[in-house]
Structure formats: C-alpha cells, structure tokens
Amino acid sequence: MRNAIAASLAVFSFVWGEAAFAQMSERDLAIVGRALSFIEGSQSGERVVALIYDDAGQAEADALNAAMSGGYSARDITMVPRMVPLSDVSGGLAGADAAILLGGLSAGDAGISSTAASNGVLTVSSDMVCVQSGQCVMSLQSNPSVRIVVNESAASSASVSFTSAFSMMIERI
Length: 173
Description:
Blueprint: H1 2-16, H2 26-37, E1 45-53, H3 58-68, E2 72-74, E3 77-85, H4 89-92, E4 98-101, H5 112-118, E5 122-125, H6 128-132, E6 138-141, E7 147-150, H7 152-157, H8 164-167, E8 171-172
Parallel strand pairs: 1-3, 1-4, 4-5, 5-6, 7-8
Antiparallel strand pairs: 2-3, 6-7
C-alpha cells in the first residue's frame, strides 16, 4: 500500500510540475554537449561545464564529474567539468560555457540565473518549471524520449542563441 501511495504521489508531482526532478545521466550530458555545439558562433574545442550543486545534489555532481573527468566528447566539443557548490556560484561561473543545476536547484537559488546571464552561461536543468519560469535557458529530459525546451527570453538574457538546425529540434517557450 505504501508503494502505491508513493507511486501515486510521484506521478501527481510530475503531472503538476512540483519538484519532479530527474537526475542527470550520461545520456543527458551528450545532449548538453550537442546543444553547446549548436550555439551560434560556437567552434570546436573545450567547453567548461559548471556542475552546480547543494547538499542534496552532491552525489549527483560527483557522478557527473567522474563521467566527465578527462573530458567528455560530444560532437566536435569536449566538455570539462567544474564543481561549483551553491555557496560559490558568484565566482564559480566565470569562464563557464554551461551550468547544470543539480539536486533540485532552481536558477533562482543564490542568484544563479542572474550570475549565469551576466556571464553568458547556458543554464540547464531537468526541472521543466525552471525553464517555464524563465530562470533556466534549457530543460531536458532524455527518458523515455528526448525532449529539449528552451526559454527564449532566458536565452536572450544570457546572450545564448542557437543555430537554426538546433532550433528545429527543440520546443521554444
């Protein structure tokens, strides 16, 4: 009975958009890498990806950091991780190309959205509410199928624009 109640609450939370966060996977990393390669003016080479985490996201950040150690190649770029605890967002985003919010963080937490925008950083979350609210540039889900949603206003604030080829593969809000 407890399992049925827990499953019902999980489905209810997902349907209503409340705190339904999926952990980022290696498949998600590949999608982030592809998105980075489709940014206007992007060239091949290394891209710094900030892994922003709080206490709840520490294990997820550690796992992604391990997956990206030595560089994670996607298309014509190589992503290198930078661990950024929530308490160090103001300094940790300088020079980053993208920031992945982990552990249920919202870009509104500790000024992530404004700091990222002022540094031209693509913010990515598995939380659709984050992109719908304009706090994140991109939200992605890779299971059961790939869904990428980009908030055009948030992208513009961060000076992030995608090529038309990528724009045809995403949902824009």
